[in-house]
């Protein structure tokens, strides 16, 4: 049997009742090449691995204590037989049967392309807030993008480096030979953006392909928003030296801007909440997101001289993202 052209890797932990639909949609991809399905599982107890095997996937265990997003994806890529390795998270669903082919097409067409990432669409039935947030991200755009620095990445201003490095492993595909020289870093968060930055620094090209789309959205609360933007803030400081919310005054200004922007988006959604409810939701998200970003700056400034309280706060904010 010839080797598959592409390998699809799914990371799982108690994937839940929707996992069967994901497996079905992955199996139904329309391609003119062969592909395989691999599952890297971190200790599921709900029948996830048994279902994956019944659907023809190769299942590879990873101890839960050894899991981080970079390590798990590196394991999947190391076991892959394909020239290209696609990643999709367990709670995403390909929108159609062209999800995989659209990414592979970009890699086939241009040898300079190291990785492709796709569009994210809110799940049908998601709340107006979830829809508004997903549709506000760069991965909601309908326009294809090529990200290439031409060897001048570090000559660019810091604010220009960030968008060029954008990469998202919710739904992505990488060239395996590039991954071999640029494996994902061992990190609990942001392995995709870290990889994207290193790929562009090395002279490779990244592509955002909106024809490759998945349903992916969450119904999150205030605590998650705080934690997520804390993690994002630390990542932006580490990779790019960016601090969009450096002080309390900017926190307030950014919260007002974010809240106003989100409120207007919410009011445009179908079945939008009442005006007072929309205002409350927008204000909650704005305050939590900007507080998280500001706390990240405070943490970064006090590295090496933190108190016990600061360390416990960091541990608390770093959980659940």
From TrEMBL:
Output the Gene3D superfamilies linked to this UniProt entry.
Spore Coat Polysaccharide Biosynthesis Protein SpsA, Chain A
Pfam families given for it? Answer: Glycos_transf_2
Q: Glycosyltransferase: is it a keyword of this entry?
A: yes
Keywords attached to this Swiss-Prot or TrEMBL record, sorted alphabetically, are: Glycosyltransferase, Transferase
The pathway where this protein functions is: Cell wall biogenesis; cell wall polysaccharide biosynthesis
Q: Which residues form a coiled coil?
A: none
What protein name applies here?
Answer: Rhamnosyltransferase
Q: Which organism is it from?
A: uncultured Rubrobacteraceae bacterium
